[in-house]
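Standup notes
- DV: blocked on the single-chain target, sequence here:
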Amino acid sequence: MPRGDADKCLHKCLRRFAVVFFAVYLWAAVMPGFALAFTLPDIYISSRAAILVDMGAEQELYHRNADGAENRIPPAGLTKIMTALLAFEFAASGEGSLDGQVVVTEKAFGGLPDSAVDLQPGETITLRSLLYCMLVALDNRSCNIIAEHVAGSSAAFVELMNRRAAELGCLDTHFTNAHGLHNSNHYTTAGDIYRIAKEALAYPEFMTICDTRNTMSVSATGSDGQTQVTHLLTVKNDMIAIRSSHNPYRYPEARGIIAGYTAEAGYCVVSTAERDGRLLLCVVMGAKDNPEIRSYVEAKDLFEWGFKNFTMMTLLVVTEQLGSVKVFEGKDNDEVTLVPKAKLEALVPKTLNVQDDVEKTVKMSQVSVYAPVEKGTVLGEVVVSYGDRVFDPIPLVASIKIDRDETEHMIASCQEYLSQEWFLYALAGLAMAVLLYITFVIIYNRRRRKRGNTRQNYRGKRRRR
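- DV (later): unblocked, structure below
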């Protein structure tokens, strides 16, 4: 081919390639949601760790450095959730009572700085009031008083804390005290704090106490056994606190739970929020305060992100036909359609298109069955998925009842009976026996006729008279 023609051919090919490339690029630009229709909006979280969970769906919506040994961080006052959990379990077991009287000991004050509540050695106070002191005012001495009351000593209580953490599956948690003041061997993760908080929320009074929003007071009896002492408690969780002055961190939909801070742990908060029947739980740990306390800000951001971007959708209905199975000997039907045994509702991104983005993988346990088939008989399963989320298999069941056609069943039974190997052998043996019998009869009759002919041809001598 001359060089000029080759150049023209090359330029023509390049032009065609450019047109195709531009068309593909334009298609991708105008249809960005085709491949990732349910992509969630980004959210910026600067804290060291965070997790957001929808409690109703028991579904994790967001996580950042939430689990794993590499994400262990000091929990500060969030430690008090475990202390409260053990106190509630102690009362529920019958060993103690929330209304039981607890004597404040000087030993419980050992090594602790000035306290948020001015409890004095010798005072008597109920376990319930101590829980208010600890969860509302974040009083550290109350933690040690509770520890001594529940386990006999702070050291024994710490053993209980670590044992209970292990039972809850908190693989990256280790406690050295009941209050959360810093210790290099006192650590947890955002995921583990969620697990502990979830367990504590099983006790309704836990939320009642930690959702206190206004300044309140508790009473104690003085060391003389007569004087009534009143202790004022200031709400330290700014996510819920109602103050006389403006509280920029208050989130009206927040409920409980607790906040914490140490220089080493940074600002931490655990909170729940409720909207439109949905309850979210958020853990934020290791936040900074420049210029605002980021734990509160980012907890609110996570709540808004979770409420705005997720909703409950029905991904599978019980009337949806997802295949069929052949039915032998069925009366009026030679196949049965399969439908899900239960509907599937799930919390999903609001941008999810059920028709286009959801996959349904059907697996039949049998390709055919014999009648009768009862309605609801399990004949397969379906696995629903979207993106990288895969749901547990849902059984597929017969949508209707199919009775047996007795005539067809009788014919089929006879056919099956006649086709059995032993019957064929028996039939062959019988045929052979009949054949041998016929052969024997033929041979016998021939011989008999031959003997008869011989007698007729015999002319022996007559006897004399």
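- Follow-up: The two ends are 136 Å apart (CA to CA).
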